[in-house]
Specification:
Blueprint lengths: L18 H13 L18 H15 L2 H21 L2 H13 L6 E2 L15 E5 L2 E12 L6 E8 L2 E8 L5 E4 L12 E12 L3 E2 L5 H37 L1 E2 L2 E2 L4 H29 L5 H26 L9 H12 L6 H14 L11
Parallel strand pairs: 1-4, 2-4
Antiparallel strand pairs: 2-3, 3-7, 4-5, 5-8, 6-7, 9-10
């Protein structure tokens, strides 16, 4: 069993940090081994499993109270680290994994565009063969970890099929910007990528030509399965704060929590949190057993996103005006929770996927748990 990291040195979220602070926090968690879970030791990982990853992320969320930090970590892991692990050449693994796992490089992936999000086949970013490499043109929007990222896995259409490319912020013709920055999960950076005749060498192709759609699906399955592990820790803190407030605040001569209208909301918050933990555990179990998580990850993402939003609304409702005070983390968590319904595929997309997996569509095999 992996030793649980000590996150006492990670600053607790108290408002939107500056970019230098975001980078510092990410390097600090990297030094504690957060990027090394569920990775083989010979590649720099801890040699443990996804159950340990969930535990560590949950503890970090509880300590940091920062959904943005957790979003940045997950974008780094599922957007760059695991695609390189699963699809990279030996040379790519040797070049990228040590730097990404140590936190020297920050990564992510670029899928979303100004005119397409969940419908990845509608992307218009293109890659064209040029000499011994490729030239990329297009725009990506709402990309986690931009403009701070050093490298991105950028998806573009090559000969009409989606392929993946490793692109550096320093590549000529590539520009990272703050355009598209969000008012949610502000403990992370979100921005845009502009590709104008961006030339890269042939060895920057990740995986096979045309394998990008499969790679996107795999990355999003991991992200949907585990992006709420850290947020579950934040919800644990959120619940404890609401219970504390309900005991200290008096209304009608009794503690606020004595009123059923309050205690029932608190009970619902606890039930949601425990259910998220069960779903996270199920996703970890499936991954550690080498089984597919297509259905379970969609169910986890859908339930956790809706639960986080409702519990955040309940927390503000219970605390009343105190929950809406300027600088209140409870109020900011509502904004973050709205973002949670959208990132990694909206709640509506998860419902469509779940229904398709049950047999209403033709996109997936009838038994989503089959190997």
């Amino acid at each position: 069993m992996t030793k649980t990291p000590d996150f006492s040195g990670i600053p607790t979220y108290s408002g939107p940090p500056k970019e230098a602070e975001i980078q510092s926090r990410l390097r600090a968690v990297a030094e504690l081994g957060v990027f090394r879970h569920a990775l083989p030791q010979h590649l720099g990982g801890l040699g443990d499993n996804f159950a340990e990853l969930v535990k560590t992320h949950r503890n970090l969320g509880l300590a940091s109270r920062d959904p943005g930090l957790m979003l940045a970590i997950n974008a780094h892991l599922w957007g760059s680290v695991f695609p390189i692990l699963l699809y990279g050449s030996e040379a790519q693994k040797e070049k990228f994994l040590p730097q990404l796992l140590s936190g020297q490089w920050l990564g992510g992936h670029a899928i979303t565009e100004p005119s397409c999000g969940s419908d990845v086949q509608a992307m218009t970013t293109v890659a064209s063969p040029l000499g011994e490499g490729y030239v990329l043109n297009g725009e990506k929007r709402y990309i986690s970890n931009v403009p701070l990222a050093d490298w991105l896995v950028i998806y573009a259409k090559l000969e009409g099929k989606i392929s993946a490319f490793l692109v550096s912020r320093d590549d000529e013709g590539c520009q990272f910007s703050h355009e598209g920055a969000l008012a949610a999960c502000r403990g992370s950076a979100t921005g845009s990528v502009s590709l104008k005749d961006c030339r890269i060498d042939a060895d920057r192709l990740l995986g096979k030509v045309g394998a990008g759609a499969q790679m996107i699906q795999k990355a999003l399955e991991y992200e949907r399965a585990f992006v709420f592990a850290g947020i579950a820790g934040i919800m644990d803190w959120q619940l404890a704060e609401v219970v504390r407030y309900s005991r200290e605040r008096r209304s009608g001569g009794v503690h606020l929590g004595k009123h059923q209208a309050i205690s029932h909301r608190i009970s619902d918050m606890k039930l949601r949190l425990d259910t998220i933990d069960l779903w996270l555990g199920e996703c970890a179990r499936l991954c550690d057993a080498g089984q597919r998580i297509t259905l379970a990850s969609a169910q986890t993402k859908l339930y956790a996103a809706e639960a986080f939003l409702q519990s955040s609304l309940d927390a503000v409702q219970i605390m009343g005006a105190a929950g809406l005070e300027s600088g209140s983390l409870m109020a900011e968590l509502v904004q973050d929770a709205m973002g949670g319904r959208l990132f990694s595929g909206s709640s509506e997309v998860q419902k469509n996927l779940i229904a398709a997996l049950l047999g209403t569509g033709d996109a997936y095999r009838p038994n989503p748990q089959a190997n």
